[in-house]
Amino acid sequence: MKNKTTLLIIIAVVIVAALAVYFFVFYKPSQNVVPVGEATPTATASPTANAEKVVCTDGPCIASHFYGCTSAEIAITDPNSTTTVTVSVLGTENDKCHFQMNVAGHGLDCLFAKENLNESVLNQVFGNEAGQSQVVSNSCQQF
How many CB atoms are located within 10 Å of the residue 120 CB? Predict the structure, then answer.
């Protein structure tokens, strides 16, 4: 059973990495942000409501919200399958940035120190080796 769970996590990470490359390199929609009036966070903890939650439609949008730790989310669906990855920046919690990535009920729940909100850490979270594996390992838990 543990081998099956490990295999599912590896597959999820590969899918997330492929989707990240697609969104950060190829996907360029005409509109970046759509405000959400009554969005509810997917986390059980309650981050501070320091900004209106937005739904991003491309990689640069969610990246900018990650760097600023402002509330946003993006749902990325692999064009070749029905797998959807939901990436959420939930805002500030205990002076850290609460970030989640969910792939079919599995993923990461992270609390990043604000000094670690940079492109290298975001790339590492998406499965791209960026020399930040220790930061991600210390900041994130799998679910």
Answer: 14
Inter-residue contact 135 to 117 (CB < 8 Å): no
Regions of the chain where pLDDT drops below 70: 1-51
CB-based contacts of 36, cutoff 8 Å, min separation 6: 52, 53, 54, 55
Considering all CA atoms of the chain, what is the largest pairwise distance in Å, rounded to the nearest integer? 44
Cβ atoms of 63 and 80 within 8 Å: the answer is no
Residue 94: the pLDDT is: 93
pLDDT at position 22 is 58
Residues facing residue 35 across a β-bridge: 54
Contacts of range 80-85, beta carbons closer than 8 Å, 24 or more positions apart: 81/15, 83/15, 85/15, 85/16, 85/19
Alpha helix ranges (H) inside 28-132: 59-68, 119-125
Q: How far apart are CA 29 and CA 6, in angstroms?
A: 34
